[in-house]
Specification:
about 140 residues, mainly alpha, about 55% helix, elongated
C-alpha cells in the first residue's frame, strides 16, 4: 500500500468535480437540472464541481447514472476532445441548440460545416457529401 498525502485526496476531489462539470455541460444540462435529477440543491452541485465538498460513493453512483457514464469514468484521464473549451457558455448554448434540431440531414450538414471550420474533417475520416440539388439549382430540402 502506498502512502498518499491529504493533498492527493483533494486533487482527486477536484478532478471528480471537474469531470462532473464537463460531462454535465457536454450533455447540455444546467446545475439546476442536474440538481433536480439528484433531488439536491444547485449549490451542492457547485460545491461538488469545485471540489469544495467530496462526493460520496452513493452520490457518485447517482451522478454517474444521470450523466450516463460509469462511476470509474470520473477518475480516468480527461479526454482530449472534452477538454477543448468544454466549460465555455458558448459550448453549452451550442450543444443545447444542436440537440433541438430534429432534421437529421440538417444536423449532418451542420456537423460537416463545424468539422470543416475546425480543420478536422479529414482527420476524423469523414466524407462530406455534396448536398443534392433540385432542378432549379437549389439544395433539396431547404426552403428560402
Amino acid at each position: 500500500m502506498t502512502n498518499r498525502k491529504l493533498s492527493d485526496a483533494n486533487l482527486v476531489d477536484h478532478q471528480v468535480g471537474e469531470r462532473m462539470r464537463r460531462r454535465r455541460i457536454l450533455l447540455g444540462l444546467t446545475q439546476d437540472q442536474l440538481a433536480d435529477a439528484l433531488a439536491i440543491s444547485y449549490q451542492q452541485i457547485q460545491k461538488y464541481e469545485t471540489g469544495a465538498n467530496r462526493v460520496s460513493a452513493g452520490r457518485l453512483a447517482q451522478i454517474s447514472e444521470v450523466l450516463e457514464v460509469q462511476p470509474g469514468w470520473f477518475f480516468g484521464a480527461p479526454d482530449k476532445v472534452e477538454t477543448a473549451g468544454g466549460s465555455s457558455r458558448a459550448v453549452i448554448e451550442l450543444v443545447r441548440n444542436f440537440s433541438r434540431i430534429e432534421d437529421e440531414r440538417v444536423r449532418t450538414h451542420l456537423m460537416a460545416l463545424v468539422r470543416s471550420l475546425a480543420g478536422r474533417g479529414d482527420e476524423l475520416g469523414d466524407t462530406v457529401m455534396a448536398p443534392e440539388t433540385a432542378p432549379n439549382g437549389r439544395e433539396k430540402g431547404f426552403v428560402d
